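Re: [ENG-882] Designed sequences occasionally contain unexpected residues at chain ends

Forwarding the minimal case from QA. Structure tokens:
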């Protein structure tokens, strides 16, 4: 199962790189795939409570990271003037 997710991450990175998509799409994709890999690994070890806590923390970190990235992107592109 882990090899499937690693292959999927590599395949999607190459696909998105050659089709010149926006950078935050790639960031969202990697955050979601990384959270799913961590969640599956923890669930396979039969620590379901730890997996849920780790998934919740990872989701909060992903939201903060994506919002910071989008804020910095709008500041540098001139959409948001200070």
């Amino acid at each position: 199962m882990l090899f499937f997710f690693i292959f999927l991450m590599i395949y999607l990175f190459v696909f998105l790189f050659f089709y010149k998509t926006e950078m935050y799409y790639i960031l969202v994709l990697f955050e979601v795939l990384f959270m799913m890999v961590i969640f599956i690994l923890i669930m396979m070890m039969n620590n379901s409570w730890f997996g849920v806590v780790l998934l919740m923390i990872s989701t909060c970190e992903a939201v903060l990271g994506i919002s910071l990235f989008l804020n910095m992107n709008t500041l540098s592109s001139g959409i948001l003037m200070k």
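QA comment: On inspection the terminal residues look reasonable. The radius of gyration is 16 Å. Proposing we downgrade this to a documentation issue.
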